[in-house]
Amino acid sequence: RMEGWGSYTLPTGTEYRGALRDGMFHGEGELLFPNGGRYRAVWHRGVPAQGEYTFADGLEYKDKKWHYCDGYDRRFYTEICFGLKPAGISQLTNLDPPRKIPEGCYDCGDGFYNPETRVIVDYKLRFLRNA
C-alpha cells in the first residue's frame, strides 16, 4: 500500500499530492482539480478533517460570511480584484477575456450546449454527453 509522501492521479484527472498512510490520504495534502481548483486539507484516514478550497482564479471559498456573487454583491471575482469594465463592455463570466461561444450555443460550465443537436461538447469541441 502507498505510504509516505507522494502523488496519485485519479481516473478523473484529479491529482492528490501529500501524505499517504496505509493506502489512504493521511496528513497534509492537496487535491488539484483539472479545472485549476485546489483543495488543501489535513486528512485523517482518507477523510478531510479541515481544509480550504481555492478556485482556479485564486478566489478562496469561505463557508461562513460568503458574499461572493450573492444578492448583495453580484460582481465576479475578477471585477472585485480589478474593477468593473466601462459601459458597453459587459463581463458575462468570471473569465477575462471570456470564452468564444459558438453561435446558437450556451456555455454550461464544462462545455457548450447546442440546442439543435442536444449535445454538450467540451471547450475543445470534443463530445461530452447528450443533454
From TrEMBL:
The alphabetized UniProt keywords are: Cell projection, Cilium, Flagellum, Repeat
Tell me where it resides: Cell projection, Cilium, Flagellum
Q: Which Pfam families match?
A: MORN
UniProt superkingdom: Eukaryota
Main localisation? other
Output a single Gene Ontology CC term carried by this record: motile cilium
Q: PANTHER family this protein is in? A: MORN REPEAT-CONTAINING PROTEIN 5
How is this protein named in the record?
MORN repeat-containing protein 5
Please tell me the species this chain comes from. Answer: Lophotis ruficrista
Upper lineage ranks?
Answer: Eukaryota, Metazoa, Chordata, Craniata, Vertebrata
- Identify the coding gene: Morn5
